[in-house]
Design goal:
The protein contains 8 helices and no strands. α1 runs parallel beside α3. The chain has one domain. The model has no long low-confidence stretch (mean pLDDT 81). The protein is mostly helical.
Amino acid sequence: MASYIETVRRVMDGDYKNATEEERDKAIAEVIQMCSVAAGAVTIQPLPLVDIALISPIQIAMVQAIGRVHGHSLDSKSVMEMLSTFGASIVAQGVIMTAAKFVPFLGWLVTISMAYAMTFAIGEVSDYYFRNGRGVPADELKAMFDRVYKTKKAEKEQEHKRNSSLKDRLEQLKEAYKEGLLTEEEFNRKKEEILGSF
């Protein structure tokens, strides 16, 4: 959480008037990534109805930082008005995240993926909005949000599955070594093979 706050603060305090497009792109990409990770992290808390209350300030700060890089100063109310353009999707995601919390273990994985993807999509759409002079039609923003959200959510879910599968295979290998079914050399070789396949 601290790194997301530091990243947003650094961007908000930065001077982007004379920055190159590459410097702006880098700052925006870093803010979007850090805020998306932070949003996913706060969903680990066990209370179902608290997620949106914890995620919203992260998303507002992210949009303000992205706007700042593009030369716009926004208060929280302006950000909320902007987010309301594709707000139906955000409200729906919040309801789904709340419901998912009631599913033991897997529910948390779902909410982490959803919070990360939703925040990432808001960041990408905000960047696009400011980049195009704030004159983008609402239906175009909503379509972009839905597309980016679905892509990032699928990527995160695949990542969770891969990590889970990797952990299971390494645990099985460790058990086989402990039981004397593998030599140390075989264990190390197989471990390298497993790690290399992910």
